[in-house]
């Protein structure tokens, strides 16, 4: 650990700090395929958002029917 830190580079947070109750999120642990995680991180970087936020968004959109499973749609058409 350093004895002194340069705090001049720190940026002020633009938004209000939320408490755990306000966030309303649950911490989980999940194992992902390494290549999938690399692709997710690459896409998140391209979008300028944290990769965990992207994962949460993908899950939310799938659960709410905004994203579909291509395999299940292809299976229904055949």
Mind sketching the topology for me?
Layout lengths: L19 H4 L10 H14 L3 H13 L6 H8 L1
What do these coordinates show?
With 78 residues, the protein is mostly helical. The chain has a domain at 32-78. The chain is built from four helices and no strands. Helix 2 (34-47) packs across helix 3. The longest helix has 14 residues, at 34-47. The protein starts with 19 loop residues before the first helix and ends with a helix. The mean pLDDT is 84.
Concise summary:
This protein has a domain at 32-78.
Cα-based radius of gyration, to the nearest Å: 19 Å
Helix content: 40-55%
Q: Total helix count?
A: 4
Largest sheet: none
Low-confidence stretches: none
Average pLDDT, rounded to a whole number, is 84
Span between termini: 61 Å
Structural class: mainly alpha
Number of strands: 0
Q: Overall 3D geometry?
A: elongated
Quote the beta fraction.
Answer: under 5%
Name the helix and strand elements from N-terminus to C-terminus, one letter apiece.
Answer: HHHH
Give keywords.
elongated
